[in-house]
Amino acid sequence: xxxxxxxxxxxxxxxxxxxxxxxxxxxxxxxxxxxxxxxxxxxxxxxxxxxxxxxxxxxxxxxxxxxxxxxxxxxxxxxxxxxxxxxxxxxxxxxxxxxxxxxxxxxxxxxxxxxxxxxxxxxxxxxxxxxxxxxxxxxxxxxxxxxxxxxxxxxxxxxxxxxxxxxxxxxxxxxxxxxxxxxxxxxxxxxxxxxxxxxxxxxxxxxxxxxxxxxxxxxxxxxxxxxxxxxxxxxxxxxxxxxxxxxxxxxxxxxxxxxxxxxxxxxx
Length: 268
Hints:
Layout: H1 2-12, E1 32-42, E2 45-55, E3 60-71, E4 78-80, E5 91-93, E6 98-114, E7 123-139, E8 141-150, E9 153-162, E10 173-176, E11 187-201, E12 208-221, E13 236-251, H2 252-267
Antiparallel strand pairs: 1-2, 1-13, 2-3, 3-6, 4-5, 6-7, 7-11, 8-9, 8-10, 11-12, 12-13
């Protein structure tokens, strides 16, 4: 988490130095909604986001958003197997019992606290959102190998199984099985989340959204999420996030003017 906080500072803070630039001659979009996508990097995973921002006032917007992210256990360690044992050898995470994907659906609010002063400027906004979590836990399967001695000869027996227990010798595992193995065994773990963050929009066009975001997310589930074969699993996840957002600004005032003209024609 400390590493990601450093990354957030590295990318966001220097942007404040570029709030002066060439004079902006573009027509300002004073009443705008936004549709955008974001690539998320969390301190415990990664994923994506879709957001629809609806204007409330000149400085405020209501946010409707969906996140789809992976959540990892802090003790995950990747192991690389000896490929000379089998052509099917792959890397794997020892002791991982479930891959965990989280679907968030949220509503929130955004307020602008610093407006662009020129074409190369930055708009700064803070935002928060909250809503339900739908956690999806999919079992992880492993490729196991057993050494058999038959009539003085060494033979190998292969099997595909879930993680057995912590006493399994790592040399018996030659990699993770297909990711799609276990999709028919997915379990749902519901919860709630809250998110707070800061947006720095630096796009040079009034019609295009380009921004960096950083902040904090808390996910709370109704029970411990069985990611690892240990009792040290969590039901509460705090994570820092950094994201790059891109999308389109929608001029609501133009839409309103079009509606007004159509209404006038209908009256006539």
